[in-house]
Amino acid sequence: MQIRTVATTPFPDQRPGTSGLRKKVAVFSQPHYLENFVQSIFDTLDLSGKALVLGGDGRHHNDVAIQAILRMAAANGVGRVLVGRGGLLSTPAASCIIRRRGLAGGFILSASHNPGGPGGDFGLKFNVENGGPAPEKVTEAFWRRSREITEYRTAEAPDLPLDRPGIQRLGGMEVEVIDPVADYAELMERLFDFDRIRALFADGFRMRFDAMHAVTGPYAAEILERRLGAPPGTVVRGTPLPDFGGGHPDPNLVHARGLVALMNGPDAPDLGAASDGDGDRNMILGRGCFVTPSDSLAVLAAEARLVPGYAGGLKGVARSMPTSTAVDRVAADLGIPCYETPTGWKFFGSLLDAGRVTLCGEESFGTGSDHVREKDGLWAVLFWLNLLAVRRAPVAEILEDHWRRYGRTYYTRHDYEALDPAAAAGLMDHLRQRLGELPGREVGGRRVRAADEFAYTDPVDHSRSTGQGIRIVFEDGARMVWRLSGTGTEGATLRLYLERHEPDPARQHDDPQAALADLVAAARALGEIEERTGRDRPSVIT
Ligand code: VG1
Ligand code: CO
């Protein structure tokens, strides 16, 4: 194997965002673009002689990028790479494999819920030895390196066949193609009561799992249909496709429309669920009922003792700042700590590693636990299945019981996508300037209790992250949170998150948009959204 050093010049835009580096396929497929970023990672971390995992969600460019990374890994002295068959690995499965097999880390190729195909997005993320996304100080170091890079190393070698499990060599490096599902499925069997879930299906329980033609298809088919005995056809859109069948692999009320319609129709099964491009997100639906991700986290925390993997109780919980405070109430009731972190899974890693929290979640359809160091879509679905198998009650009843006990936190997120970046930054600046004068004032009929720009000091490693979104909290506990997306690839995306708590069971059955209409109107006026962005409504409401 011939090693080649290739001269290159830096690209100015390789700063990783909320979750890795995400760009349009056209950007990623420019000569040297992927290679520069990958070499920046090899230059930052010493991975020579180490073992890594490599795989992605199967989107367009996945195959080309995997071969390029393998050649570069060999040229940079990596000892061994485990690749998912066909180049496929879900994000939580990659995390699981790093941990179970004691690897030094791995590359995950995905732009998650962003659309794929030649005109879509591509992404690359590096996870470290705890199985989780590289922490901010590491991703910032990748970025610094990418701005000074002058050369990268690659190998002269043909593409390796990745369609069959087995061991091959690329120069001095060993490449092992592995079954992408096996390690993960075994871990799930240890956490959940598979016998009980099998009995639930045997008794006629029906579900539909929409894999959205993304990576979870093979995982869901193996676990739900083969190991748990769910009827064939439970998993739909189960074949991963490079363009996700032309869809937007984002499991929410807008992009999983067919599933939502089914669950609201006359022939709704007992449970509906979906996952995103790389398998780390989940959406949970009951018959005629949608469980918001924030509520899902709260319910899982409250019911965790019913599930074998969590029967010993929870050490603590964590949620990202914009996630609703529903789980805070459960934590208070259980007498366990509840941490509030910035958006993005990388901030949960140190809390999980230190054993301070067992469950964590985000409003953006992300839920997970200390079993891996990523959010985990199918895990959340199995957690719900285990609860349903124990309680034998409809999803809606479990949710309503929860609300009666803790109150309902009405919640919505309004996204304004593809905004002019200057207008979006101006809107945030304007809010920032007003933070000092807001406390004590009335906004839309509510008095502001506190207003700040969220900054976080990690309680374990004391690293500090600033500028993590604007928070306005009212005296009745209602909240308005504002931030700009760190995963988009087109213009800027403004995310506005709104919530209010409703303790009265007689008022817990409204449409969230109606229940939050006054907060929405107050936020639009306060942020001068229409004047500044020209938008009279959000692009996506979840
Ligand atoms: C979004 C979500 C955030 C999530 C991130 C990655 O980030 O809001 O909660 O962690 O996506 O999820 P942002 O910066 O666009 O708001 V995934 O499934 O795209 O890896
Ligand atoms: Co994802």
TrEMBL record:
<feature type="domain" description="Alpha-D-phosphohexomutase alpha/beta/alpha">
    <location>
        <begin position="14"/>
        <end position="152"/>
    </location>
</feature>
<dbReference type="Pfam" id="PF02880">
    <property type="entry name" value="PGM_PMM_III"/>
</dbReference>
<dbReference type="GO" id="GO:0004614">
    <property type="term" value="F:phosphoglucomutase activity"/>
</dbReference>
<keyword id="KW-0597">Phosphoprotein</keyword>
<dbReference type="InterPro" id="IPR016066">
    <property type="entry name" value="A-D-PHexomutase_CS"/>
</dbReference>
<dbReference type="InterPro" id="IPR005846">
    <property type="entry name" value="A-D-PHexomutase_a/b/a-III"/>
</dbReference>
<dbReference type="GO" id="GO:0005975">
    <property type="term" value="P:carbohydrate metabolic process"/>
</dbReference>
<dbReference type="InterPro" id="IPR036900">
    <property type="entry name" value="A-D-PHexomutase_C_sf"/>
</dbReference>
<dbReference type="Pfam" id="PF02878">
    <property type="entry name" value="PGM_PMM_I"/>
</dbReference>
<feature type="domain" description="Alpha-D-phosphohexomutase alpha/beta/alpha">
    <location>
        <begin position="294"/>
        <end position="406"/>
    </location>
</feature>
<dbReference type="GO" id="GO:0005829">
    <property type="term" value="C:cytosol"/>
</dbReference>
<dbReference type="Pfam" id="PF24947">
    <property type="entry name" value="PGM1_C_vert_fung"/>
</dbReference>
<comment type="similarity">
    <text>Belongs to the phosphohexose mutase family.</text>
</comment>
<dbReference type="InterPro" id="IPR005845">
    <property type="entry name" value="A-D-PHexomutase_a/b/a-II"/>
</dbReference>
<keyword id="KW-0460">Magnesium</keyword>
<dbReference type="GO" id="GO:0000287">
    <property type="term" value="F:magnesium ion binding"/>
</dbReference>
<keyword id="KW-0479">Metal-binding</keyword>
<keyword id="KW-0413">Isomerase</keyword>
<feature type="domain" description="Alpha-D-phosphohexomutase alpha/beta/alpha">
    <location>
        <begin position="183"/>
        <end position="285"/>
    </location>
</feature>
<dbReference type="InterPro" id="IPR045244">
    <property type="entry name" value="PGM"/>
</dbReference>
<dbReference type="InterPro" id="IPR005841">
    <property type="entry name" value="Alpha-D-phosphohexomutase_SF"/>
</dbReference>
<dbReference type="InterPro" id="IPR005844">
    <property type="entry name" value="A-D-PHexomutase_a/b/a-I"/>
</dbReference>
<dbReference type="Pfam" id="PF02879">
    <property type="entry name" value="PGM_PMM_II"/>
</dbReference>
<protein>
    <recommendedName>
        <fullName>phosphoglucomutase (alpha-D-glucose-1,6-bisphosphate-dependent)</fullName>
        <ecNumber>5.4.2.2</ecNumber>
    </recommendedName>
</protein>
<dbReference type="InterPro" id="IPR016055">
    <property type="entry name" value="A-D-PHexomutase_a/b/a-I/II/III"/>
</dbReference>
